[in-house]
Every structure is written in structure tokens, then in C-alpha cells.
């Protein structure tokens, strides 16, 4: 499962349409792999400006004198954390024709492209980080998910939900 947590000032991502469009763009990154769409979780966490500090200055904030040299404190700051569980970039190194740095760079480019119209093009300051956690400690609806590329995972993707499956169909 990819889990994206988007921490943002309340002054950003105010409408349901804005959030839905960004969530769909994020989901496209993973369904192209392909992953079942329901694996992708996007959480929007609105915060008061006095709960987001960069370099000790609230963002956004009218306290421009506190900047010293540095970023404009009037600009909202968006922080995104991404957890990848269902697939890891390190797992893709096993694909013979792929080099790990190319796979990583391709993934980061897709993340940048998904975020650009929603964050960068709006002039917000932003950053993201990606964690890759163990698939062994992951369950959905109480099920250990089927292996990547298995018949059962294809069924999950087609039905867009977790269902019980024959373990033979869940392994490669």
C-alpha cells in the first residue's frame, strides 16, 4: 500500500475537488505499475499556520522580518510523507533490464509530475520523503495481500477491493 500524508495549511486544498484531483493523480502513479487502485491511501492533514514552522518561522506567516535571508514566510509550505509497502523501489532492482538509479529517478519524476500542478504551479514551498516499509507487516481487511503480479492480485485490482483468495492464486 502506498500511504501519502499531505500536511498543509488550512488555506490550501480547501475544496473536495482539489483533493480528489490530487488523490487521483497520485493513484495513477501506482495503477500504472499496476497496483490495485484501492491500495493507494491519501490523507490530507490541514494544519493551522501556527502549527507549521520552517526554520523557526510559521508558514504562512506575515512575520517576514523573522526570515532573515531565506524563504518568503508568506508562502504556504506543504510537507508530504510517502510510505511504500506493496512495492519498493529496491524490489524493482531485481528486474534484470533495470538499474536501480534509473528506476528510482523514474519514480521520483512521476511523483514530481503528480504534485506539480497542485503544489509547485501554485507557488507553494514543498518537500516530500519516501519510506519503504516491510511488506511482511501489512494486511488489508485482515488478509495478507497476494504477491505482486499474481492472479489473486489481478482479481483484487479488477474488483478494486480485498477479498479472500486461494493461496495458490496469491503466489507466483
Automatic annotation (TrEMBL):
Ranges where the Tautomerase cis-CaaD-like domain occurs: 1-161
Source taxon at top rank: Eukaryota
Stretches with biased composition (Basic and acidic residues): 155-172
Region (Disordered): 149-172
Identification of the protein by name: Tautomerase cis-CaaD-like domain-containing protein
Organism: Didymosphaeria variabile
Lineage, top ranks: Eukaryota, Fungi, Dikarya, Ascomycota, Pezizomycotina
